[in-house]
Structure formats: structure tokens, C-alpha cells
């Protein structure tokens, strides 16, 4: 029998249709019943309007959309023979704010989704403290606002760089927010210093101290999440950044990757209309997000975790928490190496001169985000968006399951629902 | 020159450019008594569902009463009430656990919920999340699936005709509403909204999508999206546009409601005057550069480096009504103009099509709120000027003059 389960406690709304046999999930299909038509809204508008419209695709990773849009336009400039060379400063500002957006997302997901959902399944004491997530997320958002104007929905990136021109005062302001965030992470989440956390090499190291993180870890073990939720054990990282390696991974082995091989198909949804599409790489499904990113960076702890627990729900959750620490450390280095004397923006040719296609790829909190743009005399003739959740939470047939479908298969429904959320679902982005 | 000075004076003292902040002693005395009586009555009521007491929360968080009162006095100012109302506003905040709120997400990006999580003030996250009785919110509540639906039904039943309904996102009417369905029955967003709004005390549309249709309603409006006010009739309705809406204004509306039991004074687009009674431009930090005729002419130029006015780069501040130049975003850290990007006019209807950022306002051929059609900055002649145009024309001329002088100076 097929039963429908609504999933609110995510960003937006989704439904999962479970086909249960012998109390286990035999197969599940996913629908996203909302649609806005962003791609057709962009058609016929000035290319630069994409910089204010696309951040509104998503209220949680709008900044990643802005960056994908600006990169797509800059790529079109390049393909039209007008290559733009960004200054180091502009690149660093863009990366810093992108990282802050990732961090705010991870904190919120941890304290407002994962811990409360895990608490429902475990016996050990793990306190629900959603406000911690809200507090940390607001600190990150403040750091974005220093350079980006506001969050969500900033529009300060333009072809050629960024419009903000920070002085030492802004750098100090961002640094103090970052320091507070690190302090919070150490005190509230980790229970040890960030430096020490980043040197951990094995899951056994979590036994040595007590904190939200170790309680989470114990909870995941108690619920057997280290033996459940296996997906494809193949990952993709597409966005080019200083903090990650774009690559395709089979297990922990890395291969080269090219975003031109990304395609999408209609989702399989026999029960209800869905507006989502599945994303594939060379016609295969891959998992996207922090686990793949951390494996691509050969982080010892995550590699060891993968050796022990493969791509289980445990590894997926712990990698996302680990990535907070990894990114905090990286953003400290970014801020310390700012040359404020450099230009924020370089002069570019008038957009009306540009008739070309371009692709912009970034790593959003949940994985790769792709914007493809086609321009005629600076006007948008085609716009196409592919989001990370389309990779992870596609809905395909039983013969070719997507990562989330595979991860839920053969499990009790309550476990399957938790595992669904370990992928950090974003429905508003997916349907756009 | 003197008529120009008179023109500027007229522009910035005209009714359209300011909001009535002083309604006279008699008015305020009466309002004070009404509020006082309402607060006293609320004090006799029990908090809903054992919600936390803000006094206790402040104490455990180590927030001093003085800081709380400082926040209350800022809110009083924002609501455009005399300072004597500060203790009442503080009391109203303490009564926030007596006002049930139901929050619906329709055709949205969750940006306003995100903004709400980052609302303003000392530990206001606690106020919003723990103190106000948020009876239903799809993303923030713990319950999900069928339990969530049940929770909504119970909240509607239990707080019949008393709850404030906050709506985020537009309402798709195309294809019989099939672009957005909710719940097990596949109810359309339209039907869902109508049903939940039926027994609300008032409806608050939050963000540009819920107010005027927002991004989804931009041409060609593929899903037939409209704002809440196009669907809900016969209920007190408050619009808090902007993308995202400023959380300070959301909290302001709730406090105003608790304080007075009424919706705040609204403009013709149903926006609270305390927040939308004046233009971005009226309080902009770069205003002095506008007045001095100093503009950014190109991204990254000397003007940009010196924080000059962004009007010529497409800033819509002169025709956008909102308080972001005062309240700012993310706990007051910054706002778009602070990073040299200009205002996109996101709290005005249809701004995606009419106000699009990259078109300088002068090329957009939009009707100024004060009447008349804008032309390019330098096209303006004094004779055909609208009120808003006078100042801009003068300053454009001054800018051209300043440019010449500067060139001369450098030679």
C-alpha cells in the first residue's frame, strides 16, 4: 500500500509517497507541489536584472544564487571575447560571504531540524535548542551583511567584482562577528577548541569529551544511523572555490569533472503533480553536498569516517557539522589576507555588447548550483537553473533510484523520514 | 536661484515626503488611555499554552531592565508614538504571549521566515520564537506531516477570531490553483488561505510576494500569482512589503496590535505609515551627496569609493517608501545602499517589471508617487517638474557644474 507523508519541517514543502512492504520502505517517490516559474520570468529581461531576481529563488541560499548568476554573466562575457579578470579582493569578499551563508545554513539545519528530529528517535538525553541555531545563523548573516548589504537577498555582486568597498572598520566588524561565531561553535557545539576539533582523526576521538556534538554522535550510533541511509557512494563537487576541489568521487577516489555533462530529466511522480526535475551527471545520479566536499579535500576525519561507516546517514550528518569548523577556519584566513587597497570592481564592457552563452557554478550549502544563461545583446533569451536538491532528492523509478530514494530503501518509515532530512532538503530552490 | 531653493523646500516639506508624527495632545491622551485599559485587560488573561514569560527570559538571559527599556523606547519611536508611551510598549512586549499568531507559507522562498529568525533588538529572537504564541509555522514548528495539519486545525478552532494570520508568499491562481497545493487533500494555496483567514482577527501579508505578488507575479506571471489583498476581503489587512520584509516592522505590527488592539494607520497600499510613511531617500545616509550633486557615475569610480549618491546607477530610493534607511537589516548591521548597490524599490508594487534595478529610474519611465513621468536626469527643465523632479533636476545641474569645476581644478 502506498501512503503519503507530508514533510513540513524542511524549507518549503514536500510529500513522500511510501510503498511499505513488511513494515519496511520498499520504494518511495517524492513530490514538490509548488512552482513559481522563475526561468520564464527571467526570459526577455536585461541580463543584469538576473542579479536581483535570482537571489529570490531561495530565501536560504539566495547569496549562492547571486554568485551563480554573476558567474554565468561573466562567463558569457568571456565567451563573447571580453574576459573579465576579478581582483583578489573581489574574489575573497565573494567567497567569504558565500562561506558565511553555508555556515548559517548548517547551524540552522543542525539545531532546528536534525537535533529535534533525532530527539524523537533516541533515549539518551539530547536537548532541543533551536534558538542556538537561530543565534549562530544570525551572527553569520550579520557577517554577510557587512559586505553584502543584507541577508537574505543581497545583490552586491556585479560583473567585474563587488560594489562594496570595505575599510578596516568593516573588516574588523566582520572579524569580531567571526570570532564570536567561533567562540559559540567551540562552547556550544563542540565542547573543545576549533583547532583541536580540526585535528581529530577518528570517530573514536569523540569519546574523549561531552557536548552537543558528541551527544549527536551518540544519538546517531544509538539509532543505528551508521548502518543505515547508504546512498550511491558517489559524489560530485562542481563549484570552483579556494575551499574545495571540484571533482567526481567514487568512494574516496577522485576524478576530473566538467559541468557541461550535467543534465536534467522530469521527476517520476505517479501520484501527484511535481514541479521538480532530477539532475544527473553523465546520466548517473550522484550525491552532492558537504560529505562529498570534505572527501574531495581528503579531510582525515571524514576519510576515516567513510572507511568505517561509508556514506551512511551518520557520515552525511557528521560531515556537515565538520564542514562548519572547516569553513570557519578558512574564513579566518580569508579575512586575514585582505588587501583593501585593491579595486573592488574592474571596468567591463557594456552588457549590450554581449551575445553569448555562459554558465555559473558555485557550491551552495547543499551542493552544486548551476545557472546557465543565453544572452542576445545583453538581454536574456534563455535561463536555466539546476539546484543541489535536484541531485540529492530526485524522484526516479525503482530501476534507477536517486540518492535519497536509495538511502530510504529497506528501512522503517521513521528512520527513512530522518534520513530524508539528512540530505538537508530545500524545496523552494528545487522547484524555482 | 531663489525659486530653485523654494522648489527644494517645497519638495521636502510636501505632504508626500513626510508622515504626520504629531497628532496633538488630545489624540495621544485618548490613545494612551485606550492602550492602558487594553494592557490591564491582557494582564488579567492567562498566557496561551504556558508560553514563557518575557520577564523571566530577560532575567535568565542576563538582560537588564534598562536595556529592555532602551529597546522599548526604540520601538516606541519606530511606531511614531510619543516617548511617554515607552512603558506601555514595554508592557505590551511583556504581553506578547497573549497574542496567538498563525503563519502560512504559500508561493514563497522562505526569505521572510529567515528574516524573522534574525529580527532585531536584544535577544528578540527569544521574543519572537518563544514569547509570541506562534501557534503554527511550517518550517519553525516541531510537528510535521499530519500532526502539523492537526495542529493548524486545533489552533484555528481554539483561537477562533482572535489569531493574527501572517502570510508569506503569493497566491497562484493559474491552472485552477494547481501551481501550489498544500496538505494531504491537495488543497490549493488559494483555498487554504481563504479557509485559515476566515476566523482570523486580522491578516498580515509579509514580504513583497504576499503583498503585491512579488517575484512570481513578474511578467509574464507564469503561475497567475496575486497578493493576499486580491484574495482576502472583509478582514482587516496589513501589508508589510519589501523583499524580505524587515522583521522590525513585523514585530512592530504585533506590538502595535497588542498595545492598541487595532491595526496601525495604513497608507493607500495598506502599509503601516509608521514604516512606509516616508521614502528611503528622505533618510538616506548618502543624501548629503545627492544634495551636493555628487553621484556615482560608473561602478568602482571615485564617486563609488567615496560613497556618493547612487541615483544615476539606478537607485530607486527617491520613489520607494520604506524605513530601511533607518532600521537597516540584520540587527542594524547594514542595508543595500551601505554596500554601494542602491535601492531596488522592493517595497513598491510590480517593482520587478517597473523598477528593475539596472535601469536608472530616469530611464524607467515610471510614474513618480508625486505624479508625472521621470525623464533622464539631465533632461529635466524646471517648468515641467514634478515635486520629486525639482530636487533631482537641480542637483543634476549642480553635478554637471561640479564636474566641470573639478576638471578645471585638476588641469
From TrEMBL, chain A:
<dbReference type="GO" id="GO:0016151">
    <property type="term" value="F:nickel cation binding"/>
</dbReference>
<protein>
    <submittedName>
        <fullName>Hydrogenase</fullName>
    </submittedName>
</protein>
<feature type="binding site">
    <location>
        <position position="61"/>
    </location>
    <ligand>
        <name>Ni(2+)</name>
    </ligand>
</feature>
<comment type="similarity">
    <text>Belongs to the [NiFe]/[NiFeSe] hydrogenase large subunit family.</text>
</comment>
<dbReference type="InterPro" id="IPR001501">
    <property type="entry name" value="Ni-dep_hyd_lsu"/>
</dbReference>
<dbReference type="InterPro" id="IPR018194">
    <property type="entry name" value="Ni-dep_hyd_lsu_Ni_BS"/>
</dbReference>
<keyword id="KW-0460">Magnesium</keyword>
<dbReference type="GO" id="GO:0008901">
    <property type="term" value="F:ferredoxin hydrogenase activity"/>
</dbReference>
<feature type="binding site">
    <location>
        <position position="39"/>
    </location>
    <ligand>
        <name>Mg(2+)</name>
    </ligand>
</feature>
<keyword id="KW-0560">Oxidoreductase</keyword>
<dbReference type="GO" id="GO:0030313">
    <property type="term" value="C:cell envelope"/>
</dbReference>
<feature type="binding site">
    <location>
        <position position="385"/>
    </location>
    <ligand>
        <name>Mg(2+)</name>
    </ligand>
</feature>
<feature type="binding site">
    <location>
        <position position="429"/>
    </location>
    <ligand>
        <name>Fe cation</name>
    </ligand>
</feature>
<dbReference type="InterPro" id="IPR029014">
    <property type="entry name" value="NiFe-Hase_large"/>
</dbReference>
<feature type="binding site">
    <location>
        <position position="426"/>
    </location>
    <ligand>
        <name>Ni(2+)</name>
    </ligand>
</feature>
<dbReference type="InterPro" id="IPR050867">
    <property type="entry name" value="NiFe/NiFeSe_hydrgnase_LSU"/>
</dbReference>
<dbReference type="Pfam" id="PF00374">
    <property type="entry name" value="NiFeSe_Hases"/>
</dbReference>
<feature type="binding site">
    <location>
        <position position="58"/>
    </location>
    <ligand>
        <name>Ni(2+)</name>
    </ligand>
</feature>
<feature type="binding site">
    <location>
        <position position="61"/>
    </location>
    <ligand>
        <name>Fe cation</name>
    </ligand>
</feature>
<keyword id="KW-0479">Metal-binding</keyword>
<keyword id="KW-0533">Nickel</keyword>
<keyword id="KW-0614">Plasmid</keyword>
From TrEMBL, chain B:
<keyword id="KW-0479">Metal-binding</keyword>
<feature type="binding site">
    <location>
        <position position="324"/>
    </location>
    <ligand>
        <name>[3Fe-4S] cluster</name>
    </ligand>
</feature>
<dbReference type="InterPro" id="IPR001821">
    <property type="entry name" value="NiFe_hydrogenase_ssu"/>
</dbReference>
<keyword id="KW-0004">4Fe-4S</keyword>
<dbReference type="GO" id="GO:0016020">
    <property type="term" value="C:membrane"/>
</dbReference>
<dbReference type="GO" id="GO:0009055">
    <property type="term" value="F:electron transfer activity"/>
</dbReference>
<dbReference type="InterPro" id="IPR037024">
    <property type="entry name" value="NiFe_Hase_small_N_sf"/>
</dbReference>
<dbReference type="Pfam" id="PF01058">
    <property type="entry name" value="Oxidored_q6"/>
</dbReference>
<dbReference type="GO" id="GO:0008901">
    <property type="term" value="F:ferredoxin hydrogenase activity"/>
</dbReference>
<keyword id="KW-0408">Iron</keyword>
<dbReference type="GO" id="GO:0046872">
    <property type="term" value="F:metal ion binding"/>
</dbReference>
<feature type="binding site">
    <location>
        <position position="284"/>
    </location>
    <ligand>
        <name>[4Fe-4S] cluster 2</name>
    </ligand>
</feature>
<dbReference type="InterPro" id="IPR037148">
    <property type="entry name" value="NiFe-Hase_small_C_sf"/>
</dbReference>
<dbReference type="InterPro" id="IPR006137">
    <property type="entry name" value="NADH_UbQ_OxRdtase-like_20kDa"/>
</dbReference>
<dbReference type="GO" id="GO:0009061">
    <property type="term" value="P:anaerobic respiration"/>
</dbReference>
<feature type="binding site">
    <location>
        <position position="343"/>
    </location>
    <ligand>
        <name>[3Fe-4S] cluster</name>
    </ligand>
</feature>
<dbReference type="InterPro" id="IPR027394">
    <property type="entry name" value="Cytochrome-c3_hydrogenase_C"/>
</dbReference>
<feature type="binding site">
    <location>
        <position position="346"/>
    </location>
    <ligand>
        <name>[3Fe-4S] cluster</name>
    </ligand>
</feature>
<dbReference type="InterPro" id="IPR006311">
    <property type="entry name" value="TAT_signal"/>
</dbReference>
<keyword id="KW-0732">Signal</keyword>
<comment type="similarity">
    <text>Belongs to the [NiFe]/[NiFeSe] hydrogenase small subunit family.</text>
</comment>
<keyword id="KW-0003">3Fe-4S</keyword>
